[in-house]
Amino acid sequence: MKILDKQIKKTRLIKESVEKVWWRWTTHEGLKTFMGGDNKIELTPSGAFEIYFLMDNPVGHRGSEGCKVLSYLPYQMISFSWNAPPEHKEIRESEYKTWVVVNLKSISENQTEITLTHLGWLDDEKWIAVFDYFNTAWEMVLDWLNNASVKNDTAEH
């Protein structure tokens, strides 16, 4: 099956240092500040990158189980495999996973530009609904990240 050039790309300016945004994306404690109820993160190539959103669901249907860190450059980029949500059972249960690249760019001491790119979409009609789902979901994730940084900024003042 052919991989499309199609991608989801979202960019946001976050009012936190690149170090803080990196911490939020790459550590158990950091991810819990803005995304998912729990997670298993192993910052090493092929390490776990599992975020659990649906804690009441059975194991294997809670979030990004089975997803892995693909690569990273500290404070600059992390990439990881990504699966479909449980409601897209056929795609979720396939061996194939898409991948996400999160790029960070320090704009100033307290501002970081984040660009999230979701790639690896297959040329199959079944994948259209999953693409549409994540096109909306990644906007929400970046809103959560921004809200966590705003709360942090408010708490520090």
What would you note in describing this structure?
This protein is of the alpha+beta class and 157 residues long. It has one domain (8-156): Alpha-D-Glucose-1,6-Bisphosphate, Chain A, domain 4 (2-Layer Sandwich). It is built from four helices and seven strands, in the order βααββββαββα. The strands form two sheets. The protein has a five-stranded antiparallel sheet with strand order 1-7-6-5-4, covered by helices on one side. A two-stranded antiparallel ribbon has the order 2-3. The longest helix has 29 residues, at 128-156. It starts with 7 loop residues before the first strand and ends with a helix. The mean pLDDT is 92.
The CATH homologous superfamily is called START domain
CATH architecture: 2-Layer Sandwich
Q: From the alpha-carbon coordinates, what is the Rg to the nearest angstrom? A: 15 Å
Class, according to the CATH hierarchy? Alpha Beta
| N- to C-terminal distance | 53 Å
Low-confidence parts: none
**Major beta sheet, strand line-up:** 1-7-6-5-4
- Tell me about the largest β-sheet: 5 strands, antiparallel
Range of strand content:
25-35%
Mean pLDDT: 92
- By secondary-structure content and strand pairing, the structural class works out as alpha+beta
SSE order, as H and E? Answer: EHHEEEEHEEH
Examine the coordinates and then state which fold CATH places here, giving the name of the CATH topology.
Alpha-D-Glucose-1,6-Bisphosphate, Chain A, domain 4
- The number of distinct β-strands equals 7
Shape: globular
Question: What percentage of residues falls in helices of 4 or more residues?
Answer: 25-40%
- What is the number of independent domains? 1
Tally of separate helices = 4
